[in-house]
Amino acid sequence: MKLGNYKKLLPKIVVGLVIALIFIIPVFTTSLVTLSKFIVIGFWAIAAMGFMLIMRTGQISLGQAAFMGLGGYTSAVLMIKLGWPFWPGFLLAGIVAGVVALAVGVVAVRAGPIAFSIITLALAEIMRILAVEWEPVTNGIKGLVVTPPFPIYLDYYFILILVTITALVFWQIDRGRLGSLFRVIAVNPTLAESEGIPLTKYKVIAFTIAAVFTGFAGSFYAHFLGVMSPYMFGLWQSIQALMMGIVGGISSLVAGPIIGSVILNTLNDLLSRLPIYSIKPTLFGAIVLLVLLFLPKGTGLIDLWRMFWNKVFREKSVTVASPN
Amino acid sequence: MPPVELIVNGLVQSCIYMTMAFGMVLVFSILGILNWTHGQFYMLGAFVVYYAVTAAGIPFPLSILIAGAVIGGLGMLVEKYVIERVNVPGLGLLYVTGATIALNFFFEGGAGMVFGLDDKGLYSALPGVLELGSFNITYQKIAVIAFTLIVMITMYVVLNFTKIGLAIRAAAQEPSAASLYGIKVGRLSIIVMGIGCALAGMAGAIIAPVYMVNPFIGALPLMMALLAIIIGGIGSLTGAIVGGLILGFFTSIVPYYLGYISEIALFVTVIVILLVRPQGLFGVAIRR
Amino acid sequence: MSLLELKGVTKFFGKLAAVDDIDLDVQKGEVLGICGPNGSGKTTLINVISGYYKPNRGAIYLEGKKISGLRPDQVAARGIARTFQANMCFHRATVLQNMFVGSFLQYKTNEWQAFFETKTYKERRKTIVAKVMDILELLNLARDANVPAVDLPHGHQRIFGIAMALMTNPSLLLLDEPTTGMNHGEATLVVEQIRKINERGITVILIEHNMKVLLDLATRAVVLNFGTKIAEGKPREVMKKQDVIAAYLGTETV
User: Most buried pick, A324, B125, B228, C197, via CB within 10 A?
Assistant: First the structure.
């Protein structure tokens, strides 16, 4: 019995070790560059998770960057223009993002999934234009310089905790009633309605929750980078959240986006060293296409992980059919 | 009364947005999906015409047709090898959206890598200006308007008076019934995709001399076509035309008075329209 | 006692009136049969009553209160449940999981209680488990509980549709051709099950092509043709009327 058990436990032990390692990395290195890489991955993991939560309800949001920007600008403006300290600004960032998502969401969801995507796309554009043009508040393209609230290693733990909280909340949503409701709304809305499930309400709930967490992440990111400018959150950023989610695996809400963030951000890093400007969108686009075309529906790199472990430990013990 | 130039520009923009929106709605009505790469077909059409004229010396009008054929062909390949593979029953819309968005960036980045990021100008196409009293209009812009008229009339004739047009309309309304009548909806999808993308390619081609040609010109027409479609109503060809008209004039005239706020005004207008009529001006109500 | 009233209900698709000026008065506890040739508007009528379509003219009242124009989920919340002509389920989920989702209206808890799985939520869940088992027993689906709903044989899928509808605890059940594709034995079983459901106090509107089933179950019958009512009354009498037979010429009768 013990022998059989360890084969199932091993992948979990490996994952556990990796997570434990992640928690003590700053002990090994206080290099700004290395820690920054991890922090960026963490930020994008949250954004990607937000995108996937919305996708759970059968909708594609092309404007998650709007909430990153809203979060970032809210806390930056509060700090610079009104002298607020970090924490109240951070909290308000999430709230503002949520309120905007609620307001826009109610209209966008009712108009259908296609219109929803278009409106979220337009929303992100509008946010960018506001950021550029509303000089008295946002300082336009010059951006707002914000002092980071913490030294780099505290930044690291901050985002780590934020990612963990987001992951736990989303994981509980997924395994709980909200998750089932989201899934059935996506898979068979007609039947869901006949069972008394209000479609718009839950789609908007998913959109708002995603926006709140993305707003928090955006606020943190602005303070981490030390500057908030309109170029940080544009169309490409919205699409990156989408790409990380899909590459990680459409059917995964927590682990997939995290893996997607790790892989695409690492790739991003490597490609930045190359002088070819256009290689990023080309390669990223190609990867997402390959995942969608050649991996079984709904799977992504997270599932390759599972398949890998299954292959490594080829269980010859096929389950014997039970007597009844 | 805004300057006449703005009205003319508005008309020219309308033509482009209208053609783009029309192509997208045509594809949507048969395939049930929105092709987010549509803007890149526009951009690639412009590049085809640029190289056809400057590198191969092919006369401009012929180049436009070549652009249409090449881009139409590309569209058909995309339909067969990408969209069809991904468009499973049920969650297909999500997968197709993801795939066509990825493809959008693949083409944009790819064009950047292959053609370079610099602006390319195609000035020699139709030089000259028509002088009408107090203002001038370039022959090129007249060509755009004429082209759009020809396309719209052709489409009207094809859709209403030819066998294939009938097949398209039947499949758009009721795909399952259409297949019972012997219409091969699968093959029709490829053909319609070809037509829709050819329209986008030719739109990019005909307006190439008016503005610059670079890998990024596809983004704005895509955005405008999308807005035109939701204003006009997602399944409606008439809506696409009307939406294109509204947007073309709006984006040309309103900034004259309101500056950058016009973009926000546009967004607010779209939201208000959707609040009152979620299905768009000409759309069918979302409920089955 | 009148449970559901339709007054002048009309639904257009373009220029065609799929349902044309229908008046209907459904009594509590009865089994109302609706029949008619294909295309006569039966399913459209169900769609209008259950909120999937909004009538262009006329109104629908449930126990005196207007429900026409409400969304399907709102209609379900008011106690009207329906089945579908096609087999519907939430793919990738078992019969049991499907039914738990279908029990949405039974929870009566708010989202926070659901998210944190509070004691109240867990209590409610126990009552729902009992109800699910009860319905599965009633409809002889207990053995299929852990089968993916989409893998059920056709006959069981039709019955599963009824089970899902019952999860909303309805006072009125709209059944859209429950016996399609069933053989004689399966159909007889379903008739029994529907009778038992009716005996529990649930009013039933039954759309059926199978005349034997209709005659067995219905206390009253309505015949539609081209969207209008052409006959109404006791099932046997209605079947004998000349224009009913003429409308059905070519289709099978008892």
Answer: B228
Q: 3-state class of B277 per DSSP?
A: coil
Q: How far apart are CA C140 and CA C133, in angstroms?
A: 10
Q: Do B288 and C53 touch (CB under 8 A)?
A: yes
Name residues whose C-beta falls within 8 Å of residue A120's C-beta, 6 or more positions apart in sequence: A61, A62, A63, A64, A66, A104, A108, A238
Whole-number pLDDT of residue B255:
85
Q: How far is A297 from chain B (nearest CA, A)?
A: 8
Backbone torsions φ then ψ of B286, nearest 5 degrees: -60, -35
pLDDT value at A318 more than 70? no
How large is the average pLDDT for residues B141-166? 88
Q: Tell me what ipTM this predicted complex has.
A: 0.90
- What contacts A73, CB < 8 A, 6 or more positions away? A131, A138, A144, A222, A228
Q: In C, which residues are within 8 Å of A322 by CB distance?
A: none
Rounded Cα–Cα distance for residues B181 and B161 (Å): 18
Contact assessment for residue B101 and residue B32, using Cβ atoms and an 8 Å cutoff: no
pTM (2 d.p.): 0.90
Q: Kindly list the domain boundaries of chain A, sorted by start residue.
A: 30-234
Backbone angles phi, psi at A282, to 5 degrees: -60, -50
Q: Are C104 and C114 a contacting pair, CB within 8 Å? A: no
Q: What pLDDT, in 10s, does the model give residues C234-250?
A: 888 887 776 677 766 64
Q: Which two tokens stand for residue C82?
A: 């329906």
Query: What 3-state DSSP class applies to A295?
Result: coil
Chains that touch B (3 or more CB pairs under 8 A): A, C
